[in-house]
Specification:
mainly alpha; Amino acid/polyamine transporter I; 18 helices; globular
């Protein structure tokens, strides 16, 4: 219990200390107009207040990742707590903040456009395809996961196919309509339900004195299971997630002032880390140890564990409300996954989104592909999602490092986690069955070489960009606010 409470405290302290440091490194400009005003179109670009943007950002980024990932990561033991805390403060929140703020400085640009500007034109095309793939996987995973939860919650009284169809209908509406019509209007209520469920489960763990394992040298992780690189891909959204890089530009287009960025981008990642801590602790303590957790994962799956843990902590009624809060998470990330995919394709093709017909012809093929993907086994999708997700995070961190290097600022805040995760993702894809299937030792060597080459290429490109005085920001000097 001490480790759990200390980790929660560290996450909160991290927001007020390292978060402030990162903000100081970036240097916000409160007088600079944001894209919400300079590009206002009434659909994707429009100003919304900090509270609303923060709740939307939290729900956008917090899909099943900070719940399903930590539950599976709990099999590695208390070391999962360390990755959630350190990853969240020094990698995930930095990743989200820099992506959001650099996007604000570049008219709300999405990651492919930022990658093209700061990492080279070829990267724009590569990241564009990669981001669309990731968002399709996310959208599909976030259809099947909440559908399974709802199906279990209703004891199979409503058909799974009908539930999936209803979720798709909602996603279509949320993808096509202006952001303030559904997302901006209903997310505050969804956010309240999410927070109530997380606080309920977390409070239940503390009040009942759940046997949450403490971190020690003897109990670092069970059976000496190899944690690198698997832990760092299993627990993603609760520590570091490339999916967030596809979501923050949605809110960069509705943020009113740069000063709000630390609360919206850095702060909401910290909130997600707290949610991840709660579910990792619940998984470690409620099912008779790691062997019991492993049996539960095999027999009832991650969705089943969420339901069981909620009922154990809060009873039948409270548990149902908690599960509803968990169901909200993937749904409120799935809808923005498709919305983000639409926006990325529109930006790539320079296609205006003011008319709903223009949005429709981009969105419908995306949904058709996603429907086909729902027929694929969830566990297979999750493996590809995990690698694609963290690889996207790597790209976003290198974009952040490049931006700061060119600006002659402390680029190490992005480069250090970027190097670490480059090594992790490369080791995984070289070793995994879905990748090259090499031995672990060979994968370590190969990943080290690839990472070293990427570092060298980064410095060559960064010094060239600095010499050529690459423009870091869009010019808004001629902009005047219309009363």
């Amino acid at each position: 219990m001490i480790t759990f409470l200390a980790c929660i405290a560290l996450l909160i302290v991290g927001y007020f200390t390292y978060g402030k440091f990162v903000e100081k490194v970036f240097v916000v400009n409160e007088g600079r107009p944001t894209p919400a005003f300079t590009h206002e179109d009434g659909v994707d670009y429009l100003p919304m207040n900090t509270k609303k943007n923060s709740l939307i950002q939290l729900l956008n980024i917090a899909g099943v990742g900070p719940i399903f990932g930590p539950i599976m990561g709990a099999l590695y033991g208390p070391v999962a707590f360390l990755w959630i805390v350190l990853g969240c403060i020094f990698a995930g929140a930095v990743h989200d903040y820099l992506t959001g703020m650099i996007s604000i400085r570049n008219r709300g640009a999405h990651l492919p456009e930022l990658a093209g500007k700061f990492l080279g034109k070829v990267m724009k095309h590569v990241v564009n395809a990669f981001a669309i793939l990731l968002l399709l996987l996310v959208g599909t995973v976030f259809v099947t996961a909440p559908a399974d939860l709802l199906y279990n919650l209703m004891n199979g009284k409503v058909g799974l196919g009908l539930i999936i169809a209803a979720i798709f209908i909602y996603y279509i509406l949320a993808t096509l309509l202006p952001i303030d019509k559904i997302i901006g209007r209903f997310y505050p209520f969804f956010g309240a339900l999410l927070l109530i469920s997380a606080v309920g489960v977390g409070g239940g763990l503390v009040i009942t004195g759940a046997p949450i394992p403490e971190l020690s040298l003897q109990n670092f992780h069970p059976d000496n299971a190899p944690i690198f690189p698997l832990l760092f891909l299993t627990i993603s959204c609760g520590a570091l997630s490339g999916f967030h890089a596809t979501q923050t530009p949605i809110i960069s287009r509705t943020t009113q002032n740069e000063k709000q960025g630390r609360k919206i981008f850095y702060g909401m990642m910290i909130a997600e880390g707290i949610i991840a801590m709660i579910w990792a602790a619940a998984a470690m303590s409620l099912f008779n140890g790691y062997s019991g957790l492993n049996d539960m994962l095999t027999n009832i799956g991650t969705a089943g564990i969420v339901g069981e843990a909620s009922k154990l902590m809060l009873g039948a009624i409270g548990g149902t409300l908690a599960v509803l809060g968990v169901i909200i998470l993937p749904i409120t990330s799935g809808d923005t996954a498709f919305r983000s995919a639409r926006m990325i394709i529109a930006d790539y093709m320079n296609f205006s989104q003011k008319k709903i017909s223009s949005r429709l012809w981009i969105a419908l093929p995306l949904f058709a592909i996603s429907i086909a993907l729902t027929k694929v086994d969830f566990t297979i999708l999750w493996r590809y999602f995990s690698w694609a997700n963290q690889s996207t995070a790597v790209i976003a961190l290198w974009v952040g490092a490049m931006y700061l290097f060119i600006a002659k600022k402390n680029y190490w805040i992005a480069m250090i986690p970027g190097i670490f995760m480059t090594m992790a993702t490369m080791t995984y894809i070289l070793n995994a069955k879905i990748g090259f299937g090499l031995s672990l030792n060979t994968s370590y060597i190969g990943a080290t070489i690839i990472t070293a080459v990427i570092i060298l290429l980064f410095y060559i490109a960064a010094k060239k960009a600095r010499m050529n005085n690459l423009t870091l920001e869009d010019d808004v000097s001629g902009w005047k606010k219309v009363a």
